[in-house]
Design brief:
The structure is a single chain. It is built from 14 helices and 20 strands. Strands 1, 2, 7, 8, 9, 10 and 19 form a seven-stranded mixed sheet that branches. It has a six-stranded antiparallel β-barrel with strand order 12-15-14-13-16-17. Strands 3-6-5 form a three-stranded antiparallel sheet. A hairpin with a 2-residue loop joins strand 13 and strand 14. Helix 1 (12-23) packs parallel to helix 5 and helix 1 runs parallel beside helix 14 (389-404). By secondary structure, it is of the alpha+beta class. The model has no long low-confidence stretch (mean pLDDT 97). The protein has two domains: 2-180 and 347-405, FAD/NAD(P)-binding domain, CATH 3.50.50; 193-342, Helicase, Ruva Protein, domain 3 (Orthogonal Bundle), CATH 1.10.8. The radius of gyration is 25 Å and the shape is elongated. The protein binds flavin-adenine dinucleotide. Flavin-adenine dinucleotide is lined by residues 8-14, 31-34, 39-40, 43-45, 49-50, 129-130, 158-160, 163-164, 168-170, 172-173, 349-350, 377-379, 388-391, 394.
């Protein structure tokens, strides 16, 4: 059996690519090694699938050459994405720009894609693992672990990155592409929790706090994020941590000193905070320093701060030395956390790195190295920030590749 095009990987980008290619009258098949299509989609957005975001700016996409992302996104943008899903049955619910299906069920997104594939008579082969792609004089020969062979004129590699391997993206596509001569920017986990140094984490595990975090790599500021930080027994988590994690992980992997400075009073300047603190001292200077924190900061956190400043919480606030006072204020506005790593690909929402975008045509998603081979989604060296950007990347690259099959 010879197909016009075979899509390897029935995830987010692969399903969309197959739909657009089939709509051009092409004979299409999807080969997926898991037991169902779109397994990862089910886990997205905490089971609600944040499938895109109305705000699309260049800084939402990262990679060695992040400008590649906008060049592709212009061809199938957020409005086209919402319209495409609406035509399949997904009525959008928008919350602060974040777009979800109105049913708030991620399975709905996977299901409508599967319904359309069925409608377009795309052939789907499940539980078949592609081991190798061979370029032939005319098209491609695909070999599976199950000892089956498939021939096609064109091939779309939509096998994802390395994040959440339980959902199928095990990096096998990257290995195949490396053998075929593509350059791989070494993948690393992104949108992931960060591990940190310090014995106090167990003590503050579960504490959430609104803060501003500034990330430093070898003393150089890399990025900053406002939002709710969550302390855990291994380190730190929360949306702002996810957003900065790709820079932190990259810095640690390069052996650089990676430090997060947390400001627990981000809406006040140091001066304003000092005034607030002085007022508290005036009215409550008779209290112990531990008691003076009551109502100002989570007490588990203030205990840690006091321990770090080597101040006994039982000391009377009025009797704090100037040195102790300065130390404490510094910690409240700039609490240092040394990052040592991440919770790995198993817990990451996306992998950074992947196939170099210098080797892919942004107009078509065709490889510049192997004619007739197209690449979509997370396998490429582009990763989106948290908020619907990774799925948008998957839909866009899938649509662009699919539309170009059979042109
Ligand atoms: C827990 C979690 C929550 C997330 N939430 C969101 C969210 O709310 N919004 C958002 O935008 N993004 C989210 N993401 C990220 C998003 O899901 C991915 O970036 C996106 O699914 C990538 O699409 P893809 O098509 O490139 O790869 P995938 O969706 O990973 O699909 C790749 C497919 O290829 C198959 N495959 C791999 N190798 C082979 C092989 N050799 N042979 C056959 N089949 C193969 C895999 O089984 C898989 O089905 C989340 C990710 C996770 C893990």
């Amino acid at each position: 059996m010879r197909y016009d095009c075979i899509v390897i990987g029935g995830g987010a980008s692969g399903m969309v690519a197959a739909i657009f290619a089939a709509r051009r009258g092409q004979r299409i098949a999807i080969i997926e090694h898991r037991e169902r299509l779109g397994k990862k989609i089910l886990a997205t957005g905490n089971g609600k699938c944040n499938y895109t975001n109305q705000v699309q700016t260049p800084d939402c996409y990262r990679g060695t050459h992040p400008e590649f992302a906008m060049a592709v996104l212009r061809q199938f943008d957020v409005e086209q994405t919402i319209a495409f899903f609406q035509s399949l049955g997904i009525y959008p619910k928008v919350r602060n720009g974040y777009v979800y299906p109105n049913s708030e069920q991620a399975v709905a997104v996977a299901d409508v894609l599967a319904m359309e594939l069925n409608n377009l008579k795309v052939e789907v082969f499940l539980k078949e693992h592609i081991l190798n792609i061979e370029k032939e004089e005319q098209g491609f020969l695909l070999k599976t672990e199950e000892k089956k062979e498939y021939r096609c004129n064109k091939v779309i590699v939509a096998t994802g990155g390395l994040a959440a391997p339980k959902q199928g993206s095990d990096g096998s596509g990257l290995k195949i592409m490396r053998r075929l001569g593509h350059t791989i920017v070494e993948p690393f986990p992104a949108l992931v929790q960060l591990k940190a140094e310090g014995k106090f984490f167990k003590q503050v595990s579960g504490v959430r706090i609104e803060a501003k975090g500034e990330l430093f790599s070898n003393q150089k500021k890399v990025t900053q994020e406002f939002g709710e930080y969550l302390f855990t027994d291994y380190g730190i988590s929360g949306i702002p941590v996810f957003q900065m994690s790709r820079y932190a992980v990259s810095s640690v992997l390069q052996g650089k000193k990676t430090q997060l400075l947390l400001d627990f009073f981000p809406h006040m300047t140091e001066n304003e905070f000092q005034i607030l603190w002085n007022d508290r001292m005036k009215s409550g200077g008779y209290k112990t320093i531990g008691e003076l924190f009551t109502g100002l900061l989570n007490n588990k956190l203030s205990n840690v701060l006091l321990a770090e400043a080597k101040i006994n919480p039982e000391n009377i606030a009025n009797r704090l030395s100037n040195q102790e006072y300065t130390k404490l204020l510094k910690l409240l506005k700039s609490f240092p956390i040394t990052i040592t790593g991440s919770n790995g690909f198993e817990n990451a929402q996306v992998s950074a790195g992947g196939i170099s975008t210098l080797e892919v045509n942004p107009e078509t998603m065709e490889s510049k190295i192997i004619k007739g081979l197209y690449l979509t989604g997370e396998i490429l060296d582009i990763d989106g920030t948290c908020g619907g950007y990774n799925l948008q990347w998957a839909w866009t690259t899938g649509a662009v590749a699919g539309q170009n099959i059979g042109k």
